[in-house]
Amino acid sequence: MTTEQRIGQVANYVDERTGAAAWMKKNLQKVFPDHWSFLLGEVALYSFVILLLSGTYLTFWFDPSAREVIYEGSYAPLEGVQMSAAYASTLHISFEVRGGLLMRQIHHWAALIFMAAIVAHLMRVFFTGAFRKPREGNWIIGIGLLTLGIVEGFLGYSLPDDLLSGTGIRIAEAIIQAIPVVGSYLSYFAFGGAFPGEAFIPRIYIVHVLLLPGAFLALITAHLMMVWYQKHTQFPGPGRTEKNVVGYPLMPVYMAKAGGFFFIVFGVTAFISAVASINPIWLYGPYTPGQITAGSQPDWYMGWLDGLVRMAPPLETYFFGYTISWNILIPGLIVPGILFTGMALYPFIESWITGDKREHHLLDRPRNAPNRTALGAMSITFMLVALINGGNDLIATHFDLSINQIMWATRIGIIVLPPLAFVITKRLCLSLQRADRELVLHGRETGRLLRLPHGEFVEVHEPISPEKAYLLTSHEQAPPLALPEVDGRGVKRAGALRNKLRSRMSVAHSEAVPKVSTDDLKEIEHH
Amino acid sequence: MKRLSRYRRHKAVGPALLIFALLGIGTTFSVASATTASQTTTADRSALIEEGRQIFLKGCSSCHGINSEGGAIAPSLVGVGAASVDFQVGTGRMPMADMSTQAMRKAPLYTPEETAALAAYVASLAPGPEIPTEAQLNYERDGSLAEGGELFRTNCAMCHNFAGQGGALTQGKYAPTLMGVEPKHIYESMVTGPQSMPVFSDKTITPKEKLSIIKWIKAAEKEPNLGGASLGRVGPVTEGLLAWTLGLGVLIGVAVWLAMKAR
After folding, report:
1. Residues of B in contact with A279 (CB under 8 A)
2. Which residues of A touch B246 (CB under 8 A)?
3. Between 1.10.760.10, 3.40.50.10190, 3.40.50.720, 3.40.50.1820, what CATH number should domain B24-131 receive?
4. For the whole model, what pTM was predicted?
5. Which of A218, A291, A506, B190 could pair with B200 in a Cys bridge, judged by C-beta atoms 3.0 to 4.6 Å apart?
6. Please, are residues B161 and A295 in contact by the beta-carbon 8 Å criterion?
7. How many CB pairs under 8 A join A and B?
C-alpha cells in the first residue's frame, strides 16, 4: 500500500465518523488577501504562542513567594544576601537551570515584541480604516487585548521581585492610592495590608499565569473568529470590491506562509535572546523598599505612562483633611482613561461624524482619509513625547542635556506638538491626493526632455496603466453631512448645537482634493 | 684636553651643551622630587608644602583665593583635607575646564608628584580627610562582596545606577560612571563628598564597608555580560529600543518579503 493510500484510509476513517470533509474543504479554501501589513497581527499572535511556551517552562522553577530566604546559589556577588524566594528562584532559573536564562530572555524579549506588534497592528487597522462597520466589535476586542497586554507585561515585570520590579509595584501602589476616597482601601485590599507585604507576589502570579492568559486566549479566539467570519479586509484594486475577497486560499498557500512565518518570528526572538541581555535581575539586586536605582524605567509599553507621571507638575489639593494628588491622578489615571476610552470609541465617533452606516471591506489608503490619518499622527506624537520623557534621565546623560530642560521641552511639546502634527499630516495627505490627481491627469514624468521644432522644451509624460489609474480614483469622496439648523418650517431643530458641532467635524473630515472624474479625463483627451 | 679644546668653537657645541644642561636639570629635578615624595621628615615636609603652595598660587589661587579662603566662584579649601585634593586634582576634575554645570573627569593636569605637593599644602591649612594608604585600600582582602552590593544599592545606586554606570541629576548635573575609577579615588569621594555627592563619613559607612563597596564596584566592572550584549546596563530603555528596531523591524522586513513573493 502506498503512503497516499494509507493517508486516504485514515482520512476516510475520520470523515465517516465525523463528516468533517465538507466543512474542512470549505474552510481550507477560504481566501485571504495578501499584504505585508496584514502580517503584523500575526507577529503578535506568534509572539503570544512563544510567550505561552517559554512561560510554561519558567513556571517549573519559579517560586511565587515573598518568603525570605538567604541566597546560597552560584552567583557570588549576592551570596548570603537576604531576598524573597521569588527573586532567589529567578536567580536559580538564570544560573542553574539548563537553558533557564535563555528561556527567561526569550520570554521577556517576546513580551516586548508582542506589545510592539500589537501597537503596529493597531496602527495598520486605524490608518486603513479597517475598524469601520462591521468590525467595530473586533476593534474593541483589540483595544482590550492591548490593555490586557500592558497589564500582563507589567505583572511579569513585577514578578521576579528585583529592584526594578519593586520600584514598579511601588509606583502602581501610588497610583492606586491616588484614587480619591477609595484609594487607600483598594491598596490595602490589593496588597493584603501595607506595602509590600507577603500577599502581592502570589496574587499577581496567579493573575499573570492563569487569569490573564485565559482572558487572552478567549479574546484572541474571538478576535480571529470574527476575522474569519467577517472575512479579512483588502486594499482597493482592480477586481476587488466590497463584496469579494481577492487573495490566496488558506490551504496550501497561507498554511505554508503562516507556518513558516511562525518559525521566523520564533527564530528572530530566539536570536535576540541569545545575543542580547534583557532584565539582568542579578545586577539589580533583590527588592527592599529602602533601595532605588537611577534610571528606574518600566518596559517600553508603559514608558509613556512613566513619562506622563514624570512631567506632571506638583499639584495637590487638601480639603477636609484629605489629600488629592492631581500630580499622580491626572497622568496616572485620568489621561490614560481618556486616551483608551477615546480609542475604543473611535469607530463610533467617526461613523457619527460621517453619518456613514454602510459596511466597508475595502481599506482606505491613509492619504484618502486625511482627517483620520492626521488624528492618528497626533496621537502617536502625544505618545512619543510622553515616551521620550519616560527616558529623560538617560537622554540627559547620553546627550549632555539637562533633565529639567527635557522635562520642560516635553511639557510644552505634549501640548504644542500633537496639534502641529495634525496640521502637517493633514496637509501632507492633501498634497499626496493632489499628486495622485496630477498623476492620473498628466501621467508619469519620465524625465525625458523633448525639444519641439519651434524650440520649446517639454518633458514627456507617460500615461499610467489603467490598473494604477483605477487604484488612484476608485476611492469614494463623500460630501460633508448636510444638517440644516432649521427644519422645513423655519423652526430651529432640537439639538442645534450638537448638529452644528457634527457638521463642522463632518466638513473637516470630508476635506479632500477632488479626485479625477470621467469628465476631467474626457476634457484632457480633448486637448 | 687639547683634542677637546679643538672642538671648542664647533657649531654643534652650543646645542649639545644646552641638551646636557637640560638633561642635568631634569634628572636632578626628578631625583629631588622623587625623594621629597618618599621621605617624611619635617624639613622635607615643609619643602613639599612650600612646593604645593607655589603650584597653588599659580594654578588655583585665581578662583580659590591667595590664602585658599574661597571666593565668589569657588569654595574655601581650608579643612577639605588631602583626600579632597587628591580626588579632585588626581581625576583631572580640578582645575576646572568649564564652570557651567560640574567639574568633569579628564586627563589630570598635574603629575602625581605635583598633586601630592598640592595635597600636602592644602592639608597643612587645617586638618581634614587624609589620602588612604595602599595598606588601607586592600579591598580584595578586607572587603566583602555581597555586603558591598547591599551597601551600594542602598547608598549609591540611586544616583550611580544599579551597575555603577552613572545617572542624571538635576540641571544638567550627573553622577559619573564608576567603571574604571581607581579604588583610591572611590574611597576619597566617599570620604569627601565631591560636588553633588554627600559625604559618607566613617560613622555612616565604616572604612571596612567602604572597601566592601569598592570590591563590589570592581567586581561589577569585571563581570562578564552573562545574558549577551549588555545594552549599556541602563535598564529597559535600550531594551525597548532594540525590541522595536532589531525585533519588530526585522520581522516587518520579513513580512514585506513574504508578501512580495506571492506576486
Report:
1. 236, 239
2. 272, 276
3. 1.10.760.10
4. 0.89
5. B190
6. yes
7. 211
